[in-house]
Amino acid sequence: MDNLKNKLRQFRFMNDEMTQQHLAKEVGVSRQTIIAIEKGKFNPSIRLALLIAKFFNTRIEEIFYLEDKNEN
Q1: First-to-last CA distance in the chain?
Q2: Tell me: the pLDDT tens digits for 20-56?
Q3: Residues with Cβ < 8 Å from 60, sequence gap 6 or more?
Q4: DSSP 8-state class, residue 56
Q5: 0.85 exceeded by the pTM?
Q6: Backbone angle region of 57, left / alpha / beta, with phi > 0 → left and psi within -120 to 50 → alpha
Q7: Which residue, 16, 27, 32, 34, could crosslink 51 as a Cys pair with Cβ 3.0–4.6 Å?
């Protein structure tokens, strides 16, 4: 089974070290949701993932990707 990974924290820091709270407000979720996504404890809905990618003006695959557990 593949795990959903993300580069959300890197994208925040590449954008003037944006806070989790700022991003949460921009995409309409709680700061706790952003924290959970960054830690890999919560997989965002497709809608939320698209909103995040749109906010950063990038493709969804640039932020979210699958990591193959079987790769060494």
Answers
A1: 14
A2: 999 999 999 999 999 999 999 999 999 999 999 999 9
A3: 49, 50, 52, 53
A4: T
A5: yes
A6: left
A7: 27
Token couple for 68: 């193959």
Q: Give the list of residues 6+ apart from residue 1 with CB closer than 8 angstroms, or none.
A: 69
pLDDT score for 71: 57
Q: What is the mean pLDDT of residues 53-62?
A: 98
Is-contact 52 45, C-beta < 8 A? no
The Cα 27–Cα 2 span in angstroms is: 26
Lowest mean pLDDT among 5-9, 10-14, 30-34, 65-69: 65-69
Nearest alpha carbon to residue 11 among 39, 42, 41, 53: 53
